[in-house]
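Researcher: Let's do a round of design. I'm pasting the structure tokens now; please hold your answer until I've finished.
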């Protein structure tokens, strides 16, 4: 709720969330259901992108599954939520210039049209382009593609970003996926931006207040729906 106080209330403000709505504390159920309710009420103002934690396998390890069992006595709510996960968008483009995704780029994807044809209505695969979009990370010291220590996705360097941006006519890649204590971090001469908007992630305080790294976009959001 603090984010809406700082950034502005819906429907006066457009919001695009970059995934990982669950496994981030004791109130994942309430957080995700609130976002869904706002999406239903204001579908053109609330945009939700899938993160790597919007996954059946991951949520059984990192807390969301156990939270649902504890609060509801069965896995029914968890199952319902994971079915919704399969329908979340994989990426978005803001005003034709900012490419938004949870994780990063993929060696299997050169154009935005290749993302549009991905069958996203499934559990997150262990590899492949859909997996990469949710799991990959920029690496400031890398050139080209590298193996990710996460065991999924890739590390990618500034040259990969430049090629992708030039090919698709975008100026910025905006993503989440990595904890940055300052709330946001620029990479590769301000062509990639990592945003972290959880101010008390796992009850460890992020240094900067929400107002410092809340991004305001007053432009049309072009969501990739299949």
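Researcher: That's everything. Go ahead.
Model: Designed sequence:
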């Amino acid at each position: 709720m603090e984010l809406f106080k700082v950034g502005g209330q819906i429907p006066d403000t457009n919001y695009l969330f970059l995934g990982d709505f669950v496994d981030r504390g004791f109130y994942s159920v309430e957080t995700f259901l609130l976002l869904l309710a706002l999406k239903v009420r204001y579908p053109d103002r609330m945009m939700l992108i899938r993160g790597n934690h919007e996954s059946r396998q991951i949520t059984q390890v990192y807390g969301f599954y156990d939270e649902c069992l504890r609060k509801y006595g069965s896995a029914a709510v968890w199952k319902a939520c994971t079915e919704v996960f399969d329908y979340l968008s994989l990426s978005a483009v803001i005003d034709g210039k900012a490419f938004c995704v949870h994780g990063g780029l993929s060696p299997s994807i050169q154009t935005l049209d290749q993302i549009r044809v991905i069958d996203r209505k499934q559990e997150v695969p262990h590899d492949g382009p859909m997996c990469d979009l949710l799991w990959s990370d920029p690496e400031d010291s890398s050139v080209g593609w590298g193996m990710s220590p996460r065991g999924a996705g890739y590390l990618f360097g500034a040259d990969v970003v430049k090629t992708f941006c030039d090919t698709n006519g975008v100026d910025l890649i905006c993503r989440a996926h990595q904890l940055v204590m300052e709330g946001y971090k620029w990479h590769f001469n301000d062509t990639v931006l990592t945003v972290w908007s959880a101010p008390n992630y796992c009850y460890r305080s992020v240094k900067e207040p929400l107002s410092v790294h809340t991004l305001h976009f007053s432009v049309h959001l072009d969501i990739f729906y299949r």
